């Protein structure tokens, strides 16, 4: 049966073992539950939600830390590594900050994992003038939006592949997030727009958006090209 499926280009969905990505039994201080399940925002970079998930290449586990902007549903930062450390989540936060350059006062929400509760991560939030918020103990729904994204990427990508190496998995995750999820995949929660499109509509009134389209058409195909070295710059 497996051979027949391979010949026809079919892949089966497989059940993978669970691996915990949260170590909430620690002595670090935790932030209050400021978000309080208010899964709405009025502008980009008002609320960010963070979480860690995992991939299971044959080579060994790969942990993926992601940060979502609640208003646009865009993944503003993500990093992947073989170890689930505070350095991993800090790298994702630093990438998000450099990409978005948000104003002060971003509400940053995460679970109570030791990585997010570490002194270094809390210091980084202070450096960026962000407000910390953490889920209540044992309440996964408090971080539902970013956990939903991780369910989607597993369903649409990870569960459909058998990865030999972490490098191949990381490359596919980059393509999925930065080229597909943020730029092409529409989201019902933002009016069936893409995250990049929704952010652009907020930044530019409709007439400016139309003028930008005419400009790109006048410049030819070069105006639409995506940089070939974007992956290397991002990772």
UniProtKB/TrEMBL annotation:
Q: Name one GO biological process term.
A: DNA integration
Q: Which Pfam families match?
A: rve, rve_2
**PROSITE patterns the UniProt entry points to:** INTEGRASE
The UniProt record lists the Integrase catalytic domain at 40-203
Q: What species was this sequence derived from?
A: Alicyclobacillus tolerans
Q: Where does the chain cross the membrane?
A: none
Origin superkingdom: Bacteria
Quote one Gene Ontology molecular function term.
Answer: nucleic acid binding
Tell me what this protein is called: Transposase InsO and inactivated derivatives
């Amino acid at each position: 049966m497996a051979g027949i499926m391979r010949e026809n280009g079919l892949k089966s969905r497989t059940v993978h073992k669970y691996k915990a990505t949260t170590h909430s039994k620690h002595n670090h201080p935790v932030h209050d539950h400021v978000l309080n399940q208010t899964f709405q925002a009025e502008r980009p970079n008002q609320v960010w939600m963070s979480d860690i998930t995992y991939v299971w290449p044959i080579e060994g586990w790969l942990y993926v830390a992601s940060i979502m902007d609640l208003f646009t549903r865009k993944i503003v930062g993500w990093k992947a590594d073989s170890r689930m450390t505070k350095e991993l989540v800090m790298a994702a936060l630093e990438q998000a900050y450099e990409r978005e350059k948000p104003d002060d006062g971003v509400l940053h929400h995460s679970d109570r994992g030791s990585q997010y509760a570490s002194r270094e991560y809390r210091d980084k939030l202070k450096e960026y003038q962000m407000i910390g918020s953490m889920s209540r103990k044992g309440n996964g729904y408090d971080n539902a939006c970013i956990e939903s994204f991780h369910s989607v990427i597993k369903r649409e990508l990870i569960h459909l592949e058998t990865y030999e190496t972490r490098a191949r998995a990381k490359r596919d995750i980059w393509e999925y997030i930065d080229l597909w999820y943020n730029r092409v995949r529409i989201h019902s929660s933002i009016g069936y727009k893409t995250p990049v499109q929704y952010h652009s509509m907020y930044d530019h009134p409709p007439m400016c958006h139309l003028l930008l389209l005419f400009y790109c058409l006048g410049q030819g195909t070069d105006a639409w090209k995506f940089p070939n070295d974007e992956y290397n710059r991002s990772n």
